[in-house]
Amino acid sequence: MTKTETFSPEETFRLGQKIGEQARPGELYTLIGDLGAGKTVLTQGIARGLGIEEPVSSPTFTIVQVYEEGRMPFYHFDVYRIGDVEEMEEIGYEDYFYGQGITLIEWANLIEEILPKHYREIRIEKDLERGFDYRRITVSEVAG
Ligand code: ADP
Ligand code: MG
Q: Which protein residue has the closest C-alpha to ligand 1 atom 16?
């Protein structure tokens, strides 16, 4: 497990960028954090680290947003509005999860039963005692 403390959105972006630069094809990341924690900021950093120039935000009307312009495909899932894992079957999630790109899933706890055996979990937490802009970001390996 690696733990990083950041004190500004820029620092969180740079951590994401480092993750994106080091990412390898086929990896899957889950992203956990409350509203306003910095999930989008971190995701934008990851996209930059993958060489994606176009703007990245949360996929609002679709479950997955695909970016092809980086050094490998980037599959950005937000499953917050999903009703049932069957919706994941319908979009053919396995092609993404087990493909040659990198997959990032926000609200992955809602689809826990279809997560692969091995993935990395990124968790962003605030601690108001440390200041409004403080974030603790942990990356851990999950092997079910
Ligand atoms: P989420 O996608 O998790 O809802 P966002 O990334 O959209 O959150 O927003 C995070 C907000 O918190 C932004 O307004 C950002 O400027 C602010 N912020 C303050 N400090 C940090 C930090 N250390 N890391 C990330 N965001 C921060
Ligand atoms: Mg967001």
A: 9
Please state whether the predicted TM-score (pTM) of the whole model is above 0.70.
yes
Q: How far apart are CA 2 and CA 99, in angstroms?
A: 26
How far from 37 is each of 8, 44, 70, 101, 125, CA to CA, in Å? Answer: 11, 14, 25, 25, 6
What ranges make up the beta strands (E) of the chain? 2-6, 28-32, 64-67, 74-78, 102-106, 118-126, 135-143
Q: Is 15 in the pocket of ligand 1 (CB under 6 A)?
A: no
Q: How far is the CA of 134 from the centre of ligand 2 (A)?
A: 17
Distance, CA 144 to ligand 1 centroid (Å)?
A: 30
59 lines ligand 1 (CB under 6 A): no
pLDDT in tens, 25-64: 999 999 999 999 999 999 999 999 999 999 898 777 789 9
